[in-house]
Amino acid sequence: MSEYSHLAPLSKQQRSQLVQAAQSVANRAYAPYSHFQVGAAVLTETGQIFGGCNVENASYGLAICAERAAIFAAIAQEGGANFQIRAIAVVHANRLPLSPCGACRQVIAEFGPDAEVIFSTAEGEISVSMTELLPHSFRLDPL
Ligand code: THU
Q1: Would you state the pLDDT for residue 143?
Q2: How far is the CA of 143 from the centre of ligand 1 (A)?
Q3: Which domains, and CATH codes, for the chain?
Q4: What is the pLDDT of residue 141?
């Protein structure tokens, strides 16, 4: 079994390491239109961490969120989509409260139905399960 068991929640130290990774990539976000810089860090079940940031475009609708950028980076770099998200942290560069958008929840659910999702609220960071964040996510197979 890997160091990051599916059953055990992340330790405080693992959680802060992941938030730190998200924080450092948030500073690389390209957000000249919204000025809302976001960073995300994915922890896979094998213990690897992949970062992503939001990247906007003059054609506004083409923006990609940090969460999806991080997941797509994991797929491109870890040998395809054969991996599970153990946890994902999402932060604003200046630590404004932020919760993952609906589109990103659906994408996180695809690769991490049991993932722990860490994000900032006005009361500080919280950690919730994907099933809490997106119950009844869309699936092609019959329920
Ligand atoms: N954004 C993210 O990167 N993640 C989210 O979960 C919500 C929104 C980005 C998209 C856009 O570049 C900016 O934040 C403002 O919506």
Answers
A1: 65
A2: 30
A3: 12-133 (3.40.140.10)
A4: 83
Residue 43 sits at the vertex; the CA angle it makes with 39 and 47, to the nearest 5 degrees, is: 145
pLDDT in tens, 87-128: 999 999 999 999 999 999 999 999 999 999 999 999 999 999
Q: Which of 36, 37, 118 to mutate to test the pocket of ligand 1 (most atoms within 8 A of CB)?
A: 36
Residue 125 designated active-site? no
Q: How far apart are the first and last CA of the chain?
A: 29
Determine the Cα angle at 47 with ends 97 and 77, to 5°: 90
Please give the helix or strand (H or E) that residue 69 lies within, else none. helix 66-77
Is 26 within 8 Å of 94 (Cβ atoms)?
no
Q: Judge if pTM exceeds 0.90.
A: yes
Q: What atom in ligand 1 is closest to the CA of residue 104?
A: 6
Residue type, 86: R
